[in-house]
Design brief:
- The chain is of the alpha+beta class and 347 residues long.
- The protein has one domain.
- It contains 14 helices and ten strands.
- An eight-stranded antiparallel beta sheet has the order 1-9-8-7-6-10-5-4, sandwiched between helices.
- Strand 2 and strand 3 form a beta hairpin.
- The longest helix is centred in the middle third of the chain and has 20 residues.
- The protein is globular.
């Protein structure tokens, strides 16, 4: 007989999981982590050769710190990990904290950095304000320098990602803005270079299989978004996906790094403990204060381009393919929309 105490630890995803088969999709081939040829990653993200050539020229003009931020926006370089053994360290974007901009954009921040990590053209714009291949001389874009401009670009990208993940996420209707990011909308939008994603409920007897698949993907160089949440001990509202973090890397010693967007920090953990947030305070902090991983995105196959995404086709013009349609051309077209005053969305 199930006691009241037993019910209190129940997650709604644990009820759903036996109904939704815990099928682990085959992982794509390895996608190398930085440092890898930035031009190759730009090509994989779908950029044309003139843009790739412009990226290469832009990288030559950057200082060491700026160049590193473009090539490795998730701060995964092994030499950095060896020289900085702190279990928690801040992550920045263009010199500003890589925090979500409001209580509903945790998923947007995660997907934005996932896209930037796989697309150095997007990372270049995000970190420096430079658009590879733009005809304006650098002097004309001087206003893109500085923390305020970097923060504005980071917010614009999060807002764009949120609109994309919400679009048609309730049949023909958008997902409610106050409810953040739905896992299926995240899976439709998520890109890392030429890798696209599917989503799976983590719960029930086979939840560990999916967590293991997420760890193995990150160990092969493919970051994995994780949805976290609570259980009925915190009320019904806590027993559903409540937050999103990014499993960025797993090293040869079984240590993983997790980007947590509410604090803008990267946490180093034992990868085998990623599902132990209910008992391990350090894991719980890495999961954004929630005890469980309740849903995960997983790499499914390389993206074949715009024709492979019929539901997103209206936005996938050739100059927009980077980062799953998150290229700067798309940002420019939506700039008027993104710059209009908006009512602040509640968490």
């Amino acid at each position: 007989m199930t006691t009241a105490r037993g019910w209190s630890g129940l997650r709604l995803t644990s009820v759903v999981a036996p109904v939704v088969r815990a099928v682990v999709p085959s992982l794509p081939g390895p996608v190398a982590v930085p440092p890898v040829s930035a031009t190759d990653r730009a090509r994989a993200a779908g950029h044309a050769e003139p843009v790739v050539a412009a990226l290469a020229r832009s990288l030559e003009t950057l200082g060491e710190a700026e160049r590193r931020a473009v090539l490795d926006p998730l701060d995964r370089l092994p030499e950095r990990a060896r020289t900085d053994g702190a279990p928690v360290r801040p992550l920045t974007v263009g010199g500003v904290p890589a925090r979500q901009v409001d209580g509903t954009t945790c998923g947007s921040a995660v997907l934005a950095l996932l896209a930037a990590a796989g697309d150095p053209v997007l990372a270049l714009w995000l970190g420096t304000g430079t658009t590879a291949g733009a005809t304006d001389p650098p002097a004309a874009r001087a206003g893109d320098d500085g923390p305020a401009a970097a923060a504005a670009r980071w917010e614009r990208l999060q807002r764009l990602v949120k609109r994309r993940t919400a679009r048609r996420s309730l049949g023909p209707f958008p997902w409610p803005a106050g409810l953040g990011t739905p896992p299926w909308g995240a899976a439709r939008t998520a890109r890392y270079a030429d890798v696209r994603y599917t989503h799976r409920v983590v719960g029930g007897a086979h939840g560990w299989v999916l967590l293991d698949a997420a760890v193995r993907a990150a160990a092969r160089g493919i970051p994995v978004p994780l949805f976290t949440g609570g259980d009925l001990s915190g009320g019904l509202a806590a027993a559903v996906p409540r937050h999103v973090v990014l499993l960025t890397a797993v090293d040869a010693h079984g240590r993983c790094r997790v980007y947590e967007p509410s604090s803008g920090t990267v946490h180093r953990l034992d990868a085998g403990r990623i599902g132990a947030g209910a008992t391990d305070p350090a894991v719980r902090r890495a999961l954004g204060g929630w005890p469980h991983v309740v849903w995960t995105l997983l790499p499914a196959r390389p993206a074949a381009g715009p024709d492979d995404r019929p539901d997103d086709r209206p936005d996938d013009r050739p100059d927009d393919r980077a980062g799953g349609g998150l290229a700067t051309g798309r940002l420019r077209r939506e700039d008027g929309d993104a710059s209009r005053p908006r009512r602040e969305e509640s968490p």
